Structures are given as structure tokens and as C-alpha cells.
Amino acid sequence: MNLIRDEGNSQVNNLTDILSLETWTQYLSGLMAFSGNTSLINNFNWSEISSLTVGQYLNLIDLAENFLNTFDWGFLSAQLPVIRSLLAGNGLSTTQIDLAIGVLQDFINGDTSLITDGFNFIRQQFANVPLDTPLLDAIAGNFNPGNTPSAGADQLDGDAGGNFINAQAGNDTVNGAGGNDTLLGGDGNDSLNGGVGNDVAYGGSGQDTLIGGDGADLLGGGPDNDRIEGGGGNDLLFGAGGNDTVLGGDGDDVLGGAGGDDSLDGGNGNDGVWGSDGNDTLAGGAGADTLGGASGNDSLSGGADNDDIWGAAGDDTASGGIGDDLLGGSIGNDSLSGDEGNDEIWGAAGNDTLAGGDGNDQIGGGSDDDQISGGSGNDQLFGGSGNDQIFGGSGSDTIFGAAGADTINGGEGDDDIWGGPGGDQFAFSPGNDTVHFFAGADDVIDLTTTAQIISFTDLVDNHLTEVGGSAVISDGLGNSMTLVNVSLASLVADDFIF
């Protein structure tokens, strides 16, 4: 074994066949360092070195060329050394670690640090380790990509190339910078930022923050409550377990929750936003988006443009926003609103509340007892099975009650109304309405909506005529209701509500 003792200013060149290098602090006066004009070691053949133990007064270290193998740092007290620079030789680009002399406990890379091309992996240990425990197990670069950083609150900064950084346990901060990076947070509350490039980042356990930056990124949270931001580019963003916040940003993104009550917002672009188990909040933002709620009582909002929105199981609330939207419920008592635009809305199973809003809408209630409102515009409204309440709103609407005891009010405008099987109730409303399949034995006309007709006698004497085999009710103010193929003689007082 070759032993080197340094008691003053010296320079040692081209050392080889070294098994152990130690600095013996009992021979030193003041602070000793391998840097500046104090001591400098050049051109080590590190392949022959098995360990390097640094004494308690070693504060600055320069490592020279031909660094080929992984080596161990240790220290003899609780004081942490400082790494100033590392030069990687053999044709590799120079790699600098904290040229501004940052404390290792604060991490290898501070605001002024740089890891250049050829250095794509980091492993480290630090902070309050016992006597002779390795402080830095490997700074391996391209030499030893199998290593991973150890436990601790780490900060890792990549470079413009494609970096692979595994921070392992601890509350870590990892910045990929430019290039197509892979960032792994491990256990702990981590912050991973891919920067420019097509990045892959996984937070692992803990409450993590993942930011993709510009580029087509793949970001995945872990089992806890994570925040995931795609940034620019067409991103794939997934929350996993926990109550996650997922933001697509610019680009055509795909967002997915999982277990937990998630909040997902596609942002700009034509996004796919999918919840899962839990009561999720989904927003499409600008662009033609597709939203799916899955199980749970979800809230879905399409935003601007033409969106497809599906609530699935649970009592869901969905709004289409501006644009010609398609909204669908499923099992559960859903509340679906098309808002502005020519929308299609389908409630399916459950007691649903369906509203078209502005525009010429198509709305279907499906099974069970639904409340359907067309809003403004010339709407087509379908009650389906169940005892439905259907209101046409303003515009010339077409309304189908279908099966069940339905309550139908055409609202303002000239409406075409079809009752169907069951005891239906038709409300006299402003406009000139036409009612098909009125069956006197089961159906009834509600005249409480007009103050002009006060009794059956008043109706027959002043407001009821027959035109072409169909009874016509008029209020004298220009509003009428025609009962197709219903004669005056077939009508009795029980067919009306006054």
C-alpha cells in the first residue's frame, strides 16, 4: 500500500497502484484542501483506488482526469466536506459539480452548478451518517448507470442532454433541463421538472409535484396526493392513487386520475380527460375535448369548443359550455347542461335533470323520471320511459313524451307535441301548439296556465272550435292548442284542469 501524507503545499502527479489514500489531520495545521495552491493531485488512475477517506478538515476537493471507476467518500466527523469540481477525462466532456463551492448537504447542484454531456446518472449519500459511512457512494456518469441516489433531501440538476436521474428516498428536487429526460423521485415529497424535451417522470410515494415543461411528456404520480403539470406539448399525465391535481396546459393532452377524488383540467388543446374511482372534477378547457367520469359522483365541464362528455356511473354533474357538445349520463341521477350551442344530451338510467340551454338541442331522458328543459332554440326533446317533466322553453320545439305519465309544456313558440302511452298532461302555453295522440280517457289539458279560460262552460262557449276534424282551443290572444283527430263531441269536463 502506498501512503501519502501532506503537511504543506505540494503537487503529486500520475499516481498509480494506490489502494488507499488518507489525509491524516494530526499532521496538519489549519485547513487543508486539494485545491488552489495548497495541494493539487493530478492524473490519478482511479481504477486502482479502492477507497478515499477524507478527514474532518478537508473542505475543498478537486478531482482530476482519468476518473473511471465508482469510489467511496467517507468522513471522520459530522462536518460535511464540499465538492468543488470533478473533471472527467478520456475524451469525455468536462463535468462540473458545484463550481461555486456549494455544501454537499445542500446538494451537489446549486443554482450555479452544471452537469454537462456525458454525465447522465447520479448516486449519493449524505447528511449525518455514522463514522466511516460512505458519504457519496458514486458519482458515476456514464461509468456506472446502475446506481441510484440514497435517502436524503436531494437536489439534482441535469443538462441539455438526455438525463436519467433516480433520486430515491427523501424530499427531492430534480430538474432535467433540456433533452429527453427520465426522472424518478422515489419515496418522499418530490419536485420533478423535466424542462424542455420529451420527458418521463414518476414521483413514487409521497406528495409530489411533477412538471413536464415543453415537449411531449409522460408524467405519473404515485399513491399519494400529487400535482402534475404537463406544460406545452402533447402530454400523457396520470395521477394514480390519492387526490391528485392534473393540469394539461397547452397541447393535445391525455389526463387520467385513478383512485381518489381527482381534479383534472386539460387546458388548451383537444384533450382527453378521464377520471376513475372517486368523486372527480374534470375540465376540458379550450379545445374539442373528451371527458369521462367513470364511477363516483363527478363534475365535468367541457369549456369552449365542441366537447364529448360522459358521466358514467354515479350522480354526475356535467356542463358542455360554449360549442356543439355531446353529453351522456349513465347509471345514477345526473344533471347535464348543454349551455350554448346545438347540443345532444342523453340521460340514460336514473332520475336525470337535462337542460339544453341556448341553441337547437336534442335531449333524451331515457328510463326513470326525468326533468327535461330545452331552453331557447328549436329543440327536440324525448322523455323516454318514466314519468317525465318536459319543458320546451322558447322556440318551436318537437316534444315526445313516450311511455309514462308525462307532464309537457311546450313553452313559447309553435310546438309539436306527442304524448304516447300513459296518462299525460299537456299545458296550454304561448304560441300555436299541436298535440298528437291525445286520449281523453287518460290524458288531460292543463288550462291553469291561461287566465282567459275559467271553466268548462266558458271553454265550450267561447274558446273551443273544430277545424278539419280536430279540436282547437284558443285564448283570444292569438295562442292556440290543436288536438289532432279529436272531435268536440268526445271532449268532457274531466279532460281539462281549470
From TrEMBL:
SUPFAM superfamilies: beta-Roll (SSF51120). One of its GO terms (molecular function) is calcium ion binding. InterPro entries: Hemolysin-typ_Ca-bd_CS, Hemolysn_Ca-bd, RTX_toxin/Mannuronan_C5-epim, Serralysin-like_metalloprot_C. Residues 249-316, 331-388 are annotated as: Disordered. Pfam families: HemolysinCabind. It comes from the Bacteria. Keywords: Secreted. Residues 254-272, 356-366 have a biased composition (Gly residues). This is Hemolysin-type calcium-binding repeat-containing protein. The lineage of its organism: Bacteria, Pseudomonadati, Pseudomonadota, Alphaproteobacteria, Rhodobacterales.
